[in-house]
Design a protein that fits this description.
Length: about 140
């Protein structure tokens, strides 16, 4: 494996694949983001959930990000679109930030655009990762 490889758990890969091919999934995010997420799923190295390093961003992981320009910190949870109303700090995996986050690890710098604004943040820490907590159902 190369140091630039991104990983995805088998469970996340299956659930996200189902989301992308479902009618429900077609209603969220635009085609470009769905294509980008699909490409990530195809290119990422699949791993068993029990083998996920505690530094990996998986679905339902709570992350602390640091803005590289301002130093501001942001805590958020990467969620499925249907769970946005259930998680106050949730960011959908089908939003630009969500697509950029899935499969990243602590220390990675992510870049994404929303409208005309470009953002650059570093993954500072994992606050909670379901796999590390052995919460296999999430």
């Amino acid at each position: 494996m190369r140091s630039t490889d991104r990983f995805v758990t088998d469970a996340d890969r299956c659930r996200l694949g189902n989301l992308l091919t479902s009618r429900e999934g077609q209603a969220w995010g635009n085609q470009r983001r769905r294509s980008k997420l699909y490409s990530f799923l195809e290119d990422a190295v699949p791993i068993k959930p029990c083998d996920a390093p505690e530094t990996l961003i998986t679905m339902n992981t709570t992350i602390e990000l640091v803005d590289l320009k301002s130093g501001a910190r942001r805590v958020l949870t990467l969620v499925y679109p249907r769970d946005l109303d259930l998680v106050p700090d949730g960011v959908s995996v089908l939003k630009p930030l969500g697509v950029a986050l899935i499969g990243c690890q602590i220390g990675d710098v992510i870049e994404w655009s929303e409208g005309n604004r470009k953002h650059r943040m570093r993954v500072a820490k994992i606050v909670h990762q379901p796999e590390y907590a052995e919460m296999w159902h999430l």
